[in-house]
Amino acid sequence: MTIRFPFDNSYARLPETFFARVVPTPVKAPQLIKLNAPLARELGLDPEALATPEGVEILAGRRIAEGSEPLAAAYAGHQFGNFVPQLGDGRAVLLGEIVDTAGTRRDVQLKGSGRTPYSRGGDGRAALGPVLREYIVSEAMAALGVPTTRSLAAVTTGEFVLREDALPGAVLTRIASSHIRVGTFQFFAVRRDEASLRRLADHVIARHYPEAASAPEPYRALLDGVVARQARLIAQWMGLGFIHGVMNTDNMSVAGETIDYGPCAFMDAYHPDTVFSSIDQFGRYAYANQPGIALWNLARLAECLLPLFSADEDASVAVAQEALAAFAPLYAEAHVGVLRAKLGLFTAQEDDAALAKDLLDRMAAAGADFTLTFRRLADAETDPAAEAALRASFGEADFDAWAQRRRARLALEPQDAATRRDAMRRADPARIPRNHRVEEAIVAAVERQDFAPFEALVAALAEPFEDRPDLAKYEEPPRPEERVTATFCGT
Ligand code: AMP
Ligand code: MG
């Protein structure tokens, strides 16, 4: 049997300056851990065929599917603020693109499939732990309604990768609307390769911002589009307590999807300064810094686009500044929209952001759990026991003071409590990938080859807004001894 991937590769047709053609390095004994059957079907792939030995060989990079034109993309990037003129896919290979059943073009990429010309000192491999983390978190983000890359499959390689210890190796098959990053633009901008830069911008417009093609200034419209999508994306992260952890410009997708899950994490106890990543020593990518960092990254993109805006440098700078100035109001609007939904507010009032901030400040002072507080707030609309639990978690006087303020605000809402509760339950998830559960799943897989906790966790996160008393274990915050305080890139 030959497994057919309906590849239609547009990136591989771009000039050779964009990538290096490579083939994945075969691994010893690939074994399927997990296949995302619904996603496979969305892509027009047969999940049963993918689970056969031949399918698994493709998902491990041991066999090249017909029509695949594997390549490693070139990009540059600012890592923790320092510019690196050449990064690129050092451990990833783009197999090709598939136009899915909804008509959207999507990248099929292997991560951990061997060395490429961009590997620098690295081995091109991925360890099992980070592969499982990306699978769990990216699929959870999708279920939570956040634009994100997806995980089609995870396989073990039958080989060890050498990190601090020898760890089991794995390969993730990642699906993205594209893997084009701010750093991809930087790659050409730093080389003053204007022809490639223009070609890239045109490709991104055609692929992600088709409406920009007919705008009076297409490249300006492209930047406007990226700014708007990032503003909305970061607002969604903030509404879920998600911390990306490595918001380098090479890890920011110009399509507006969450990409490159490394030491990412969701907060348990709310605090704006929260940082998990062990490599983020100065908290550059702390929770509350994410909107500011997004804007910083967008400014780097704008700089790259300057030569395309106008031949006159001052005029180009003015265009860039105007486009970037839109970020703050777009973000503020998106963020207050997210907060209103979390608080069950249907109408928009002047003081809504302040009301939410008041709650968040009290949560930070009390160390209240981010996810649970909002979910209980939804339940409390019709359940006095949920309200009692909330009051207990805050210190009663503190919660009551805020609740009184909120009650006054609710007087302006026409909806009844049950309607409000139902709406809030669609904005305030019951389950997020809590660090201690992610860690538990990874440890079981890596140390005991036990994938049951991973399977159970992925299943528990598939419908995060549904009430599922049987899944209470995944809703509870960690006990003090279960708390995970640091996450690792694992590269
Ligand atoms: P990241 O911060 O994980 O997105 O990776 C930053 C850069 O390092 C990218 O160019 C990666 O391709 C590269 N890289 C990370 N891990 C490895 C590895 N094990 N082998 C080769 N390159 C790697
Ligand atoms: Mg990256």
What can you see in these coordinates?
- The chain is an alpha+beta fold.
- It has four domains: 11-179, no CATH class; 183-334, no CATH class; 345-425, no CATH class; 435-482, no CATH class.
- 44% of the residues lie in helices and 13% in strands.
- The protein has helices at residues 37-42, 47-50, 53-59, 128-143, 182-190, 194-208, 218-240, 290-309, 313-325, 327-343, 352-366, 370-380, 384-394, 396-410, 417-425, 435-448, 452-460, 472-475; strands at 19-21, 31-35, 71-73, 77-79, 82-84, 92-99, 105-111, 126-127, 150-162, 166-176, 242-243, 265-266.
- Strands 2, 6, 7, 8, 9 and 10 form a six-stranded antiparallel beta sheet that branches. A two-stranded antiparallel sheet has the order 1-3. It has a two-stranded antiparallel sheet with strand order 4-5.
- Helix 5 packs antiparallel against helix 6 (194-208).
- The longest helix is centred in the middle third of the chain and has 23 residues, at 218-240.
- The radius of gyration is 23 Å and the shape is globular.
- It binds adenosine monophosphate and magnesium ion.
- The site of adenosine monophosphate (AMP) has 17 residues, from loops.
- The site of magnesium ion (MG) has 3 residues, from loops.
